[in-house]
Specification:
Elements (H helix, E strand, L loop, with lengths): L3 E5 L3 H12 L3 E6 L12 E4 L4 H11 L4 E4 L6 H14 L2 E5 L11 E5 L2 H7 L5 E5 L6 H4 L5 E6 L11 E5 L6 H10 L4 E5 L8 H9 L2 E5 L8 E3 L2 H8 L5
Parallel strand pairs: 1-2, 1-4, 2-3, 4-5, 5-12, 6-11, 7-8, 7-10, 8-9, 10-11
Helix pairs in contact: 1-8, 2-3, 6-7
Bound molecules: NADP nicotinamide-adenine-dinucleotide phosphate.
The site of NADP nicotinamide-adenine-dinucleotide phosphate has 22 residues, from strand 2, helix 2 and helix 3.
């Protein structure tokens, strides 16, 4: 049965999901936050910008006669997922989520887990030279510690200036293991700091860190509402189509 689906996007999986659902005959609107300059647009209808919290989303769901919310936001987009879950519950509309598997430490990895960026910044060894790949919003948690230095890599330019002891690089994934290893060596970095985003596009830095014997401070994912979840786009298509996975 064709359904009217609101995809909450901002990820590669959300774009793949839009194409796959359209192919199956569903009526799809993808919503993106509109933070990225020149984002790659998904197929089908797209709306851009916040809804105005869960109450704004509730109105949108009613106005657009949405049957199901397919949350394919990034694992760290906790606010959007919480709002979507609440709006779905209030409107009696199904909410399902695509949770891409988290990265797991393997043999040879030297990971230290942190619950938040603040904790990550706190537990870093004194005078560490770090490779910071946590997005453009929270770099100040690290640059505020005068003994730390290193390289900050973001997809979007940083909003605030950083002390000149830091190098800054704007680049878009994917990256190869060779590229990551070369960056780590060139900047003489000794700790990689990252959020546990999961996925293949940005995993090369973890392999490079393992090969060079470097520590990784891994920031754990925020909790998202308990819901029916899929791990892959294919599973998510089945969930949206109300089939067992
Ligand atoms: P967030 O903290 O969960 O959301 C903050 C607010 O941004 C939401 O309350 C909502 O505003 C708006 N928003 C977020 N996603 C939206 C969407 N798909 N459509 C419409 N509005 C949206 O999210 P975030 O961490 O800032 O991430 C923003 C977007 O970037 C997400 O869509 C996410 O998938 C993508 N992204 C995030 C990360 C990351 O590391 N956090 C990485 C890659 C991509 P209203 O309350 O006004 O509705």
């Amino acid at each position: 049965m064709a359904r009217r689906v609101l995809i909450l996007g901002g990820t590669r999986e959300a774009r793949l999901l839009a194409s796959a659902l359209l192919q199956q005959g569903h009526d799809v609107i993808t919503s993106i936050a509109g933070r990225t300059s020149a984002p790659t647009m998904p197929a089908g209808k797209v709306r851009v910008g916040g809804f105005g919290g869960s109450s704004g989303l509730t109105c949108f769901l009613a106005d657009e006669r949405i049957d199901i919310i397919a949350d394919a936001t990034h694992p760290f987009a906790a606010q959007m997922s919480a709002n979507a879950f609440a709006a779905g519950r209030d409107c009696g509309i199904d909410y399902v989520r695509l949770d891409r598997p988290a990265w797991r430490a393997g043999e040879g990895d030297r990971w230290i887990m942190a619950q938040s960026t603040l904790e990550a910044a706190r537990i870093l060894p004194r005078a560490a030279r770090i490779f910071l790949t946590i997005g453009s919003k929270l770099a100040h948690d690290f640059t505020g510690r005068a003994d730390l230095r290193g390289l900050i890599r973001t997809i979007e330019p940083l909003r605030e200036p950083v002390p000149e002891t830091w190098s800054v690089m704007v680049a878009r994934p994917p990256f190869t293991v060779e590229e990551e290893a070369s960056l780590l060596r060139q900047h003489r970095l000794d700790v990689v700091v990252t959020k546990n985003a999961g996925g293949e596009l940005t995993a090369a830095k973890l392999v490079a860190a393992r090969e060079l014997g470097l520590q990784v401070v891994m920031i754990e994912r925020p909790l998202k509402p308990r819901a029916r979840t899929a791990e892959t786009v294919e599973e998510m298509v089945r969930l949206v189509s109300d089939q067992a996975i």
